[in-house]
């Protein structure tokens, strides 16, 4: 009888250990399934992002081409119109359209020129 109760207790412990192992295994399977789903979602997201990026790149190229065509047409209509400014003109008190800056700004820029040492 003592032997039988010892075996029964051992059997119950084995059943408990098996139930815990099954729970752990189920948890690992669920975790693996969730990880696979997350990976698949990430792959789909990356593919979508790549597709959008390539479409945006194509759109940027198209808009750049239109801008260049527009600039070319505008330049041919306006002759040799100045579009960009060289920075030294600001020291002379001129802005990009040849308009003189107010006297106070001219004086400040001239003072800066005079204060610089000659090399």
Give a quick summary of the entry.
The chain has 119 residues and is mainly α. The protein has helices spanning 2-78, 88-91, 103-115.
Please characterize this protein's 3D structure.
- With 119 residues, this protein is mostly helical.
- It has a domain at 82-119.
- The protein contains three helices and no strands.
- The longest helix has 77 residues, at 2-78.
- It is rod-shaped and about 115 Å long.
- This is Paramyosin.
- Residues 4-31 form a coiled coil.
Name the beta content range: under 5%
Give the overall average pLDDT.
79
CA-CA gap between termini: 112 Å
Specify Rg, calculated over alpha carbons.
39 Å
Gross morphology is: rod-shaped
Write the layout of secondary structure elements.
Layout lengths: L1 H77 L9 H4 L11 H13 L4
